[in-house]
Amino acid sequence: MYIDKSELLGTAFRAAMLAGDVILKNIGNISEKDIDIKQASDFVTYVDRESEKIIIQTIKSKYPQHHFFTEESLKEEGSGEYRWIIDPLDGTTNYIHSYPVFSLSIALEFNREIILGLIYDPLRDDLFTAETGGGAFLNGKPIEISTATDLANSLIATGFPFRKKELIDEYLSLFKNIFGRVCDIRRAGSAALDLAYIACGRCEGFFELALSPWDIAAGSLLIKEAGGIVTDFGGGKDYLSTGNIVAASPFLHGALLNEVKGVFEGIIDR
Ligand code: IPD
Ligand code: CA
Ligand code: CA
């Protein structure tokens, strides 16, 4: 069944506002007893779970037949046409420390293609949205990728590979090579926001490895709809399944990808 994209986005918006409230209300309230460790350096709190519950409930009450692929609770294979991919709190480590950089991310697949993306930063009340063929928006205003053409003037975002610490030497040589060519590098701690910031030109490029689909599903659509390019480490389209991602404007993506390949070719090829 085909559903109008603006109706779907309206539902995602309502879910994001309700979850954003939960996130805002609980800042500064996280103590050690509220933190569960999923794996080394990977945490979950009652806020992640609450936020996810509200998002799922809001969407399910409107579309009971839809499938879900969410960070904390539901990993449905999605034989149905519509599947929502949800990160209820991106930047949990920041959130635990009251470090004010975090977001939530909601994407929707239709027959395995991402057709809608929403990233919400409740602290700044920044709402990023995109739908296939409809452009990308920040708080309802159209956004575009940066027009910078020179890496030397570029601000690049990244994330450290804390789930793949065995690759730290390769990551650090890539960091060094890129750092030598760009204006500066940021590690803010929310991959979804990193991608949203590229879409609206707040920074020029992004690279990170071993992310999950819920970190990048919405952000990758935002960037494409804002005129940018998103690939895996080999320059292909497998970033959602591999979690290895290079994103930038068409002017800079080739240069950034070459740096990534220069270090990771033969180690990570997609
Ligand atoms: C994390 C953030 C972080 C990235 C991690 C992600 P989470 O998401 O996006 O920037 O470096 O790899 O896991 O765990 O806070 O949802
Ligand atoms: Ca995440
Ligand atoms: Ca999360």
What labels would you give this structure?
single chain, 270 residues, alpha+beta, Fructose-1,6-Bisphosphatase, Chain A, domain 1, D-Maltodextrin-Binding Protein, domain 2, five-stranded mixed sheet, 8 helices, 14 strands, 34% helix, binds D-MYO-inositol-1-phosphate, binds calcium ion
Description:
It is built from eight helices and 14 strands. It has 270 residues and is of the alpha+beta class. The protein folds into two domains: 5-143, Fructose-1,6-Bisphosphatase, subunit A, domain 1 (Fructose-1,6-Bisphosphatase, Chain A, domain 1), CATH 3.30.540.10; 151-264, D-Maltodextrin-Binding Protein, domain 2. The strands form three sheets. It has a seven-stranded mixed sheet, with helices on both faces. Strands 11-10-12-14-13 form a five-stranded mixed sheet, sandwiched between helices. A two-stranded antiparallel sheet has the order 1-2. A hairpin with a 2-residue loop joins strand 1 and strand 2 (42-45). The longest helix is centred in the N-terminal third of the chain and has 21 residues, at 5-25. The protein is globular. The chain starts with a helix and ends in a 6-residue tail after the last helix. The mean pLDDT is 95. It binds D-MYO-inositol-1-phosphate and calcium ion (2 copies). Residues 48, 71, 87, 89-90, 92 line the site of one calcium ion. One calcium ion (CA) is lined by residues 87, 90, 191, 215.
